[in-house]
Amino acid sequence: GAVVSQHPSWVICKSGTSVKIECRSLDFQATTMFWYRQFPKQSLMLMATSNEGSKATYEQGVEKDKFLINHASLTLSTLTVTSAHPEDSSFYICSARDWQAVNTEAFFGQGTRLTVV
Amino acid sequence: KNEVEQSPQNLTAQEGEFITINCSYSVGISALHWLQQHPGGGIVSLFMLSSGKKKHGRLIATINIQEKHSSLHITASHPRDSAVYICAVRGSQGNLIFGKGTKLSVKP
Fold it and tell me: DSSP E strands: which ranges in B1-108?
């Protein structure tokens, strides 16, 4: 089946620094990737929709200048958490869709657990 | 009210029991997904449904479009089935709208 690779799987960073998370579709092309965030004991929430070659669409309440998304190719989207604060500590996960399929399975990355100290 | 409601929130079962997790949704959908999230956070897609019923091994998923309801069944449950099971519906932009999940614990 299709594989989405997310890296890193966990990261600890200091307040004020930036962290980049990568999401790659390994065996299919993904025109659209989704970035989700999950706080402890909460459900997954969509942060933004990343479209190849265009600006990401952010959900209400998600700061686009803080969470920078780049989808420069059909196989790679990156999420950069800028000037990280402890309240950004969360589980971040991406999913991707195969552009050739109209209605496809949801292929998820492994997720990234971010801890800001 | 959440757009996707799951029940129960927590479920403890003995090994071998038949398990049912329910999901109701209030929005129009093109597909419904059942996902399994392991303690480390990783998510595996179990099923994608738009109608009827699907079976994979000991897992069965059904959906009733008219009633906007889906169920996930696990037959002959095993401790390795312990995980959080999440129902998600596909929104108009292709993104998923998640339920809060059902934490299943299967005791030996």
Answer: 4-7, 10-14, 19-25, 32-37, 43-49, 52-56, 59-64, 69-74, 83-90, 96-98, 102-107
B43-72: average pLDDT: 94
Contact B96 A104 (CB under 8 A): no
Q: Residue A48: in which H helix or E strand, if any?
A: strand A45-51
Among A residues 1-30, those touching chain B with beta carbons less than 8 Å apart: none
Per-residue confidence band for A97, with pLDDT thresholds at 50, 70 and 90: confident
Counting Cβ atoms within 10 Å, is residue B42 exposed (0-12), middle (13-18) or buried (19+)? middle
Residues of chain B with Cβ-Cβ distance to A95 below 8 Å are 96
Tell which of B33, B92, B95, B96 to mutate to test the A interface (max A CBs under 10 Å).
B95
Binary contact (A103, B50; C-beta < 8 A): yes
Query: Do B43 and A111 count as a contact with CB atoms less than 8 A apart?
Result: yes
CB contact under 8 A, B33 and A97: no
Burial class of residue A67, CB neighbours in 10 A (0-12, 13-18, 19+): buried
Q: What is the pLDDT of residue A111?
A: 93
